[in-house]
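tool=predict chain=A
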Amino acid sequence: MRYFEDFHAGDVYDLGSRAVTREEILDFARQFDPQYFHVDEERAKESIYGGLIASGWHTAAMTMRLACDAIVLQSASMGSPGLDELRWVRPVRPGDTLTARMEILSARASQSKPDRGIVISQVIVANQDGETVLTWKAMGMYRRRPA
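tool=predict ok
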């Protein structure tokens, strides 16, 4: 179990990898982001992307799953007040393999709630060619270690 005290500026965590399938792209987009370049393979060829791409929200959701499996579910996480600077840098395509890492930028104890601390991290996701496809800066709340 990781507590607030276990996170230090400069720490880097490998969040793992995940393959992206055509079916997942279509399923997610049909439900949540049905823009033509996410759901219509033929029309997507005529788009500025030249083919089917994953929704940025889908890429973010896949990244969140990697973060949960690698860090969040094995920690004293209390949730997050939000993300800053979410960027979809490059399109994610069927057959891509995404690899994510997280760097701790800062960790500070809460002034008003002594049972927790705030951890600021930068997440970077790259495809199989090492090209960055997504970045975000996250704020996570973590319980302090029990006395």
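Strands lie at 12-19, 82-88, 97-109, 116-126, 132-143. The first helix runs from residue 22 to 32.
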